[in-house]
Amino acid sequence: MAKKLGKKARKFAKKNLQSVMKRKRKLNSMFKKKSTPRRGNTDSLEDSKKLKHVQQVQEDPKGLIAEADVFSHHLGDIFNEQEEDLVEDVSESDGYLSEDSECPYISGSEDENCSEEKRDSVLLQEPNREIHEELANQKSKLDELCVKDPKFSEFLESRRSDLHKSRSEEIYSDEEDASSMDEDSIQENRTSNGCKVLTSSTVDVWCWLVMEQPNASVLTNVINGFRAACHYGVGSDEVSPQKIADREVFSKILTFILHEADDIFRRLMGISGSLNKDNILKVTNKSEWKTMRPLIKSFLRSSLFLLNQESDSQILMFVLSRLRSSIMFFAAFPSLAKKLIKISVHLWATGDESLSACSFLVIRDIASKFPSDYLDICLTKTYGAFIANCKFMESASSKHIEFLENSIVEIYSLDIQRSYQKVFFSVQQLASILKQALKTKKKDELKMIHSWQYINCISIWVKFVCCNFKNYDTQPLLFLIIGVLRGVAHLFPGPRYLPLRFKCVKMLNHLSLSCGVFIPVASMLFDCLEHKGNINADRSQQKQIDLSLSLKVPKHLLKSRGFQEASILLAIQLLSEHFSQWCYHVSFPELATIPLILLKRFYESTTLESLRRPVKRLMDQVQQNSDFIQRKRDEASFSPKDEPSVDSFLQLEKCNKSASFSRFYASIQQTSISQKAAN
Amino acid sequence: MGKKKKVILPPDLPVIGDDEIQVSDEDLEFIGRNREYAGFLTRLDTKSIDRHVTRVADHKEDELESLYEKRNRKASLLRLKEEEDKLHVDPVDALPVKTLDGKLEYRTADKLKSGDRTSENKSKDDEEDAGGLKLTKPEKRQKLKKSRKEAKKLAKEQEKENIGEEEKGNIGEGKLHTEVLAKVEEDLSSEELFRKKKIRLAEIGLQLLENPEENIKALKELLQICDDEDHNIVKLGLMSLLAVFKDIIPGYRIRLPTEKETEMTVSKAVRQQRFYESTLLRSYKEYLTKLIALEKQPSVHQVAVRCLCSLLDAVSHFNFRQSVLVSVVKNISSLDDTIRKLCCEAIRSLFLNEGKHGGEATLEAVRLIADQVKFHQCQLHPDSIDVFLSLMFDEDIGKSEAVEEEVRPKKKRNWRAQDGLKEVQTSDRKKNKQEIMTKTREEVSADFKAVSFAPDSRERKRMQSETLSAVFETYFRILKHSMDPSTSRSHPLLAPSLNGLGKFSHFIDLDFMGDLLRCLKKLAGHSNHNVSSTGTCLSVSERLQCCIVAFRVMRNNLDALNVDLQDFFIHLYNLLLEYRPDRDHGEVLAEALKTMLWEGKQHDMQRAAAFIKRLATFSLSHGSAEAMAALVTLKHLLQKNSKCRNLLENDAGGGSLAGLVSKYQPDATDPNLSGALASVLWELSLLMKHYNPSISTMATSISTMASMDPAHSQVFLSTASPLEAFTDSSLEQELLKTTGKPTPSSYKRRREIGNDFVIMDPYKMGNENVVDEDEVRRKLEDHFVVHKGIAENERLRRELNYTLSSISLFEDYKREKRHKKKGKR
């Protein structure tokens, strides 16, 4: 009865007596100031700090104010939840979330606490031991002094408060430096005089209880234990109400909760099947939600805290993947969801391969399952993180960057209606940078374009257009991107920038293939056929040059044979890619005319046998295909203007890929892939 | 009116009368001697006095006279003294403020001077009553420049009489100043010295500008300053001399008197004028030699060149132009960008402002540049030849003269006829009088011609033709040099000279035409691929330019003859293959297409067809801009040659038109032998898929031309030239087009949101998430241990600190105890 009354009174106060609550808090703080001098410094602290006094009052035996009196009756599990409810509601506007701040134990666990008082002795590490010895020495000294002069001990007592004060200040400053999430730990700083030690057997019993008889009260304790574990080691250990006894307990409670929490929550709330953004509303309207909400919130908060603290990718992956299964609960807590986005974007951008993939799945889930505001956040955050992380391209990072690119494309492709504006704006931005550079040709501006950041950004949008061209009308975007790519290639002529140019050509080929438009790239490749290296360069400095990892060739390699070979081979590859797209088109012979003449000229002039062979092979194949088309179209009766007939020309062969050129291109692709693998 | 003025002006306004001037002279000398004593005068409020003076100057003459009469009595001696003194001291006062840039100081000087002048003139008015001469000095100077010599001399004499006495004092003061300077000089730090020198420079400059006739000797001092060791001073000196010379050099050329003339007795005025002119000329010469000498010193090189250039620009009519020109031309292809630009600008302005020097300088400059080119064997900066493009040749010189000749007698006749009518009425005396009048008129006009700088048209024509021949000589020299196989170096001058040839092609003499065309043909044929045979290689742009020039030349001169330039077509046909978008200039290509194919008449169907085919193929491998230019040309060709439209149809019977070659040879080098008529323009079908919408629509429109009624085809004649098409679809334009167009995406087929992966492998992604839980458990335990250690460490440290501070408190405690004890006692 008393419980109920208290509950009602609390509710009433919460709803209707906002001013009373405020006054109460104020009074409390004043009262505290008087009654406990060691907290005298706290009145300068902010609102959030005041809050904790509200709670402290409740267990303070001297807190005899009317409202506090009501509270003091209710030291129980329910109260805890109530308390949390209140705190949360009050503080949510601040973005400050409080959790179960006090932890009165249910009888069962407290018994166990008493019985198992064997603290496992953690081996003190070397530096710790030294300090320990030092401490012992000093302590004995102090004791001696006290014994000598008993009055001193009195004096010391009188001064102790000052010392404490300075001590607590120390703590505050420490904790404010740490992440904001452990602010709440301060609350428990002084509330728990007797701390409860979690032991292995306690946890075992709890786990068993939770699994066997799903009941919120036990769960609260487990969640609190989980919380304590998550916050372990960030300075709040000594002040948290629950002590983790040993490492076994630590890992057990973490893995158990992470593993089972989602199931438990679902079971308790009677949710079956998957959650999505439509039925999450239904869930939050359920009656069980009220009791479960603080628990779920505490769980999510603690997990996020753990994510922030941890650095090991395996643990992070585990936490992330578990959080992913209960991702829909985040939808009920917007501030937590935003935090989750922030953390996972960070992990996605900087983590290793599997962690990055894991985080990406979380982001994607949020972007696709949550309301569309979250999608916008994800779009901006991922793109921003990508830009910040793609400044350098090395063989190690290239794969990661490619993954990041792909995941951005995935996320942006989730809802084209929403993302298209962003994409278009971004490409326009790239185009305006380019325009400026074309106009002024200043060194800084050129440098900005001639950077991996710029190229990788284009690459993302190229992929984006390629993926979505079939389903959406992205014609203007396509046109703009092609303009940007051609502009970049045009801005950097000369053999030094051949790698950059090859990149542009490659992207153009890609666009052309997926969008089915004709983009002439042949002229962009002719240059390198005429670049004459020093054939007689000594063979000693022959090095395999990987053109895919550079945008500019260092000067000393410019004349080297290795560079010439690499560039010609890459040019052949790109040219055959271009040809293979149109090798069934009726005008293939014309398309090949000029390149063929130039290739022939190159073939006659070059003396490098390593280049002559592939060039000759390409020439033969092109010629062969040319003759093939020529033969076929001599039989045809339509004219160039007859578009449908042109489109249907050799379609059957195209589907079968029966022309020899297709086979040739496939083989070229094969070799390039195997070469890459070898590197 | 006069009364009104009187009310406004302060009653005791200082007025300078004739008798007072005499006093002032004495005073001046007095002040000159006793500078310290007169020092207080410098502190007088010059501004207000100035205002008074100028106010007086505003009055009209008669008013002034009346004012004088009234005020002469009132004017006190002392005030006059102040007035006079102020006028001399003032420039010194103004010195720290003024910088070396001429305009500002000029103005202040003028103001002062105008005050000076008015007072001077007032007295003059009283004495001589010659109101017509009452002008402020700068006005006068300006007028003098324009007016005839005699008039000027007269004016100067008068002026000299006016100012002479006053200036003496001025010079005396200057001398004194230098003396003082010399004394103090030793004590001054170098910085102060620099400042002093600067001030001195400004002072002299101001004096010179104020009254060049009197202070002409100061030029010498200025020149001496230019010998200073400090480069900055030298620079400043050179610049101030430049400003001075620009200002005081008269608008005519100075002719020094011959010996005979000097022997003759002349008036004082003439002697003075002669002295002035000879001094000016001598100092100018000295200045120039100094400049030319300094021009070789790297530290003052730029300043010297700048001075020379502005001299050339400003006083191109004056003596010693030749030497200025020589040194400017010498620097015209300097490696230093700023110097080169300065010189080129100077030469350009010389060409553009021929009126200043009558064209002589143009001829000289062109000849000098030609020599320069010859001397350096065509290895100069392109800018040096580019200046020729600013040359202006007047085709109508001869014509207008001829017309005039024709018109004049007519007029005379008319006049005579009128005379005849009048003759009846007028007497012989009158007739005589009229004859005399006409005679004098003719004489005067002849004199005027002789004096004025505009040479008669015959002379101008001669000069122009000489200039032209020098220009063309240079151009041909460069062409010849480019052809010379023995010089395999680059040809920096070829491009500008081809430009020039294109521009002036209508002036080329017919005799040269054959040679020129042969040259161009040969040059256009030079290619990279037969380097070994010819030893030279020209860029594609240059070769295209050769073709363009050849066509221009032919069109401008032999339009009627219609010579077929087959060779150039062959070159163009092959050059299309050589063209590289980023290496060569697209504009030149478009220009070539325009002049050779778009504008020209195509009678040869074979050739037209070959070009149509080649352009279509060309547009398949090049960017939008080039493709657009090619397609515009192609369309134009198809429009003009209706038979070529057969290319648009896949007609088995096309062979009937094929002529000699029945099968298309894409790699033929001769358009006539390519057999293009037998081909089909399949390219269009691929171009229809072009990403650029304007190209794809163009291709579509071309492909439908075959069905067009030939009669209607003229209506659709596109107006855009290949060059315009090129610039319209250049990269910049392409980027511009799409900006600022917020395009909502209209989707073709909506995909279920967020269900499947677009680019990634879903299977792979699914497998990424396997986590080894035991591993995690172990790691968590490690994590715990580490944190526990850290926490323990922190705790221990805190404890330790606490204990330590407790111990230290013991000291406090002891102190307090002692204190208490003391207090008790």
UniProtKB/TrEMBL annotation, chain A:
BP-aspect Gene Ontology terms: ribosomal large subunit biogenesis
UniProt entry tagged with the keyword Nucleus: yes
UniProt region (Disordered), positions on chain: 1-59, 86-120, 166-189
Compositionally biased spans, kind Basic residues: 1-14, 21-37
Keyword presence, Transferase: no
Biased composition, class Acidic residues, residue ranges: 86-102, 171-186
Keywords: Nucleus
A GO CC term assigned to this protein in UniProt: Noc1p-Noc2p complex
Compartments it resides in: Nucleus
Protein family per UniProt: Belongs to the NOC2 family.
Record protein name field: Nucleolar complex protein
Organism of provenance: Canna indica
Automatic annotation (TrEMBL), chain B:
Subcellular location: Nucleus, Nucleolus
Predominant place of localization: nucleus
Signal peptide: none
The UniProt record lists the keyword Repeat: no
Bias (Basic and acidic residues) ranges: 111-125, 152-171
Chain segments carrying region Disordered: 111-171
Gene3D superfamilies: Leucine-rich Repeat Variant (1.25.10.10)
Residues of the CCAAT-binding factor domain: 544-699
Cross-referenced Pfam families: CBF, NOC3p
Keyword terms: Coiled coil, Nucleus
One CC-aspect GO term: nucleolus
GO molecular function, a single term: chromatin binding
Domain Nucleolar complex-associated protein 3 N-terminal: 197-287
Highest taxon of the lineage: Eukaryota
Lipid metabolism keyword on record: no
Any single GO BP term: DNA replication initiation
Basic residues compositional bias, start-end: 142-151
Stored PANTHER family: NUCLEOLAR COMPLEX PROTEIN 3 (PTHR14428), NUCLEOLAR COMPLEX PROTEIN 3 HOMOLOG (PTHR14428:SF5)
Family that this chain belongs to: Belongs to the CBF/MAK21 family.
This protein's name: Nucleolar complex protein
Protein source organism: Canna indica (Indian-shot)
